[in-house]
Design brief:
Structural class of chain B: mainly alpha
Radius of gyration of chain A: 20 Å
Oligomer: heterodimer
Function (chain B): Probable subunit of the gamma-secretase complex, an endoprotease complex that catalyzes the intramembrane cleavage of integral membrane proteins such as Notch receptors.
Main location (chain B): endoplasmic reticulum
Radius of gyration of chain B: 22 Å
Number of helices of chain A: 7
Strand order of the largest sheet of chain A: 1-2
Shape of chain B: globular
Largest interface: A-B, 74 and 56 residues
Membrane topology (chain B): Multi-pass membrane protein
GO molecular function, one term (chain B): aspartic endopeptidase activity, intramembrane cleaving
Structural class of chain A: mainly alpha
Subunit structure (chain B): Homodimer. Probable component of the gamma-secretase complex, a complex composed of a presenilin homodimer, nicastrin, APH1 and PEN2.
Strand order of the largest sheet of chain B: 1-8
Number of strands of chain A: 2
Distance between the termini of chain B: 43 Å
Distance between the termini of chain A: 64 Å
Order of helices and strands of chain A: HHHHEEHHH
Chain lengths: ~260, ~400
């Protein structure tokens, strides 16, 4: 794969997150720190998961149920991590609020909290894209790794491997899902809204399970559009929720006038 | 309208100084990884040809057994750390005898050698790799000018801060790239040995770096060292945030500052010919308290984020972080990402420890240990797992 193609696939997976980074996150240094710590937290979760699953790998090719088990356990573990992440963020929010009081500045606004949640979600998305997509795309100097041809399209004269392209596209969907479900989750935990709290693990699990569809031959032609359906659902739900909150908070801050 | 009247939230400016240090560290690591990827893509070429003081005891070859390699690498690191200790003690002696001018001259000379010699070698390798058409006379003139400006940037005061920072990062990149050419086992044991040496040199009462730093504080002088200084941000009550553009002499600008020195480190490096040795003292993390009258805002004192004034990081830290990441790049890019995050986390932890303990702390150990741990975890555990999943297009 040429360098240009590699850069192209990397931009497919990470382009929107890059623009989010440049426009929102790079303006405030604290958000960059949140992004970096969030990426680190999810990396640690991936390492622990790989440690737990190491004795059972490598799994047999073409048998799909061990992978289903893997996805299920990983999603549950990561959702647990998300809850822990929320707890730590709550503690940090208290510290920041007391600090703001001390220097007589206003406490964190709603938009600040939303931005921190967005940065956390973006960290999750970037961690996913980097470890699942970029490191498999880029040429390895070390010993060769297993490579299974999963997604290919037979045309009349030759078989074309769509795998790197599909990997990038799937990674893009997951980046979207992770970024915005973190916002939904944080708001859900903050307001105690059960719907929001439950919908995030459900979306994550559904997305994970949908990738199992790729096991069928030419399955990626069905799996990927469905995955994007889930991603757009996440986006719509998040957008609605944020809009409602902002309207609520504006109504609260402009009292009877 | 509502927005404009709303006072600025604390989120606008919190953590700015930390980002001011993380950015050059990240740029240095990224450049070293890029150089490693570009210049090492042909493995048959020059991997065994770098010999220096760090390979004096044992030259690794592929046919040795693991135990032999480990023992050899251990001996190499012992020799290297011993050389560094001796060099640091010599520097302490010179500083004690107030030969500051000699030290400054030596720093400038070593910066010139690094930029000219190492920079020239890397540029030649790059020109060769990319088939860039340039003749030797033009090349020599450009290289000479580049090195001389670098020496001025590093040691003159009232020089543009941005140029100084750029040159310091370049020096870090050049030295780090040459360290990555060491054989593999030697590199890892060397990094761990240096982290341990760092703890010993800073925390033990007899440690050379602690002596050096205490002398500098008691005399209220600058240690002649290669130190990266983030641009200090001067805050006013109004929205305007000014950044100092000129680097100013320390003695003239702050009267009653409390300098808390975190760590100082000396390193010696041998050249290919083994005959030249260069020492660079780096005083990594110095935190300054804001002037009593300067700013009306106090910052978050608990976390290292908030101290106003510049955060300084020594060049030795830059170099060894980049060596770790560069060596990780020689295996696979997944390890690079893991090690990068580990090092950044280590740096953050060190700054937090600094603000808690309020005394001299070594900055290398936490990052290096985290980096090494994450490298081996990523290589042994993570890679198999992730490749297994993503090659079957199963993701979560």
């Amino acid at each position: 794969m040429t360098v240009a193609a590699g850069i192209g696939y990397a931009l497919v997976a990470l382009g929107p997150s890059l623009s989010l980074f440049v426009s929102v996150i790079s303006r405030k240094p604290f958000l960059i720190l949140t992004l970096l710590s969030s990426t680190l937290v999810w990396l640690v979760s991936l390492i622990i998961l790989s440690g737990l699953w190491r004795p059972f790998l490598p799994l047999k090719a073409n048998v799909w149920w061990p992978y289903a088990l893997l996805v299920l356990s990983s999603v549950c573990f990561q959702e647990g991590f998300r809850f822990l992440f929320w707890k730590v963020y709550k503690r940090l929010e208290d510290v920041l609020d007391s600090f703001a009081d001390r220097i007589s500045r206003p406490r964190l606004f709603l938009s600040d909290k939303l931005q921190i949640a967005l940065a956390g979600g973006l960290g999750h998305g970037v961690a996913h894209a980097v470890f699942f997509c970029l490191s498999v795309l880029t040429p390895a100097f070390g010993p060769a790794t297993f490579y299974v041809e999963r997604c290919s399209k037979t045309s009349s004269s030759h078989v074309m491997s769509l795998q790197p392209c599909v990997t990038a596209i799937i990674a893009l969907a997951f980046v979207t899902i992770h970024t915005f479900s973190m916002v939904i989750a944080f708001e859900g935990y903050a307001k105690g809204n059960k719907v929001d709290q439950v919908i995030v693990p459900v979306i994550h699990l559904a997305a994970g399970m949908l990738t199992l569809v790729n096991f069928a031959s030419e399955g990626c032609l069905i799996g990927v559009p469905l995955l994007y359906l889930v991603a757009s659902l996440t986006l719509v739900h998040c957008g609605k929720m944020v809009w409602q909150r902002l309207i609520e908070s504006r109504n609260q801050s402009v009292p009877l006038q | 309208m509502d927005r404009n009247q709303r006072p600025r939230s604390i989120l606008e400016s919190l953590g700015e100084e930390l980002i001011g240090i993380l950015t050059p560290v990240s740029i240095c690591m990224f450049t070293v990884v890029l150089l490693v990827c570009v210049l090492n893509s042909d493995p048959s070429s020059s991997s065994a040809s770098f010999s220096s003081i760090a390979t004096a005891a044992y030259a690794e070859s592929d046919s040795d057994s693991s135990w032999d390699k480990f023992v050899g690498a251990f001996l190499n690191s012992l020799v290297f750390v011993a050389a560094i200790t001796v060099a640091t003690f010599v520097l302490v002696l010179l500083f004690y005898l107030r030969c500051v001018n000699f030290l400054k001259f030596y720093m400038g000379f070593s910066a010139f050698i690094v930029l000219g010699n190492l920079g020239g070698e890397i540029l030649v390798l790059l020109i060769d790799r990319f088939r860039f058409p340039i003749d030797s006379i033009t090349f020599l003139i450009l290289l000479f000018n580049f090195s001389v400006v670098g020496v001025f940037a590093v040691f003159m005061s009232r020089f543009s801060i941005l140029v100084t920072q750029g040159y310091l990062v370049v020096i870090g990149v050049l030295v780090a790239y040459f360290f990555t050419l060491l054989p593999e086992w030697t590199t890892w044991t060397l990094l761990v040995a240096l982290a341990i040496y760092d703890i010993a040199a800073v925390l033990l009462p007899v440690g050379p770096l602690r002596l050096l730093v205490e002398m500098a504080i008691s005399r209220d002088e600058d240690i002649p060292a290669l130190v990266y200084e983030a641009r200090p941000v001067i805050r006013n009550d109004s929205r305007l945030v000014q950044r100092r553009v000129w680097r100013e002499r320390r003695s003239s600008d702050i009267e009653n500052t409390e300098v808390r020195v975190v760590r100082a480190e000396a390193e010696a490096e041998g050249e290919d010919l083994g005959s030249r040795e260069r020492s660079e003292i780096s005083v990594p993390l110095i935190e300054r308290r804001p002037d009593q009258g300067e700013s009306s805002e106090t910052f978050l004192e608990g976390i290292g984020l908030g101290s106003s004034g510049a955060i300084k990081l020594g060049l030795g830290d830059f170099i060894f972080y980049s060596v770790l990441v560069g060596r990780a790049a020689m295996y696979d890019l997944m390890t690079v990402y893991a090690c990068y995050l580990a090092i950044i986390a280590g740096l953050g932890v060190t700054l937090m420890l600094l603000s808690v303990y309020q005394k001299a702390l070594p900055a290398l150990p936490v990052s290096i240990m985290l980096g090494v741990v994450f490298y081996f975890l990523a290589r042994l555990l993570l890679e198999v797992f992730v490749v297994q999943c993503s090659s079957n297009l199963v993701m979560f």
